[in-house]
Every structure is written in structure tokens, then in C-alpha cells.
Amino acid sequence: MRDLRPFFQRAPVRRFRGTVCRICLSPYRNRTVSMRGAFLYGARYNIRQYFGCLYTSLEMETARLEIERYFTVPPDCGFVEAAIELRLSRVVDLTDPQVLRRAGLRTADLTGAHGPCQEIGLRAWESGIEALLVPSAASPRCKNLAVLLDNQFPGWSLRLHM
Questions:
Q1: CA angle 16–160–81, rounded 5-degree value
Q2: CATH topology of domain 5-161
Q3: Residue 144: pLDDT above 90?
């Protein structure tokens, strides 16, 4: 994979205003907007104990597909679903074929192994990107929003609906 630092330093950014969906284990119902789990264990777009990421989907069905992919056996404690209203100003849309081409990436780079995705997340995080709009690994025609809460700019907002 090529060095993505130059791309993210000049990446085309867009605003995002809308509601995203998230599913968490029931014991974490009061922390549905926490990046703690991703920070501690790492995930697709963040590196374990280096920086966190809030993983969300644009539709609840996509969030369900993602959680089913992760939990092959449902936990005894169950899940809680949440809707989160976001207003962001520095989002890179990696579902846009032109943006992908400009970055030298393919959709498969975003839905396959975690290593390349973590590199993408790291370079976005280092460049002050607020979120990445990405294809779902569970269903590539669906979209997820990986939110880098460390990088929120003035004017951003978050509102939780349970």
C-alpha cells in the first residue's frame, strides 16, 4: 500500500449531518458513544491502544449485519441499539469511486484484512479527519461511518437517542 499521508493531508472533505446507528452489548447501554472498547482492543480503522474510533452505520440493518459478523454466537447479555445524530465538517467519503482512485485504494482494501484499514485510519487520524465514510465489511453495498472523536472541529455535535 502506498503512503497515504499526502492523500489525507489534501483529501477532499465533506460535511456530514444525519443520524447513524450503533449496536453495543447491553452492559454498555450507558456508554454507546464510547470509543473505549475500540481503543483497548483495536478494530478495523483504529490501532489498539493508540487511538480510538466510534464505529457506526448509516442504517440499523447494516449495524445488525456488522454485529452478526463479529458475534458468531450471540452473547447472553444481549444488545442495545442506539441512534446518534451527528454534525461533522471534515469527513472523507471512501465510498466515492473518484476519492478511492485518488487515494490509490480499492473497495477490497476497505473490507478485507484489518492491517491496511488500520493504516488508512491512522493516516486519517493524524491528518485531523473527523470521520471516514466507508463500505461495510459485512455488506459492501452498505455504508459505515468510522468517527475519530479525537479530531472533532468547532461546530461538531452529537446527540444520542436510545
A1: 100
A2: Diphtheria Toxin; domain 1 (3.90.175)
A3: yes
- Inform me whether the pLDDT recorded for 145 exceeds 90: yes
Contacts from 119-122 at CB under 8 Å and sequence distance 24+? 119/1, 119/4, 120/4, 120/45, 120/94, 121/44, 121/45, 121/46, 121/47, 121/51, 121/53, 121/146, 121/148, 122/47, 122/50, 122/51
Q: Classify residue 160 as exposed, middle or buried by CB count within 10 Å of its CB (0-12, 13-18, 19+).
A: exposed
| Unique residue bearing C-alpha cell 488500520 | 118
Q: What is the pTM of this model?
A: 0.93
Dist CA 118 CA 123 (whole Å): 9
Rounded CA gap, 132 and 44, in Å? 12
Confidence check: pLDDT of 149 > 90: no
| pLDDT top residue among 72 and 104 | 104
What three-state secondary structure class fits 42?
A: coil
The sign of the dihedral angle between the CA atoms of 32, 144, 121, 10 is negative
Written as nine digits, the cell of 104 is 490509490
pLDDT at res. 79: 93
Q: Is-contact 147 123, C-beta < 8 A?
A: no
State residue 87's pLDDT score.
92
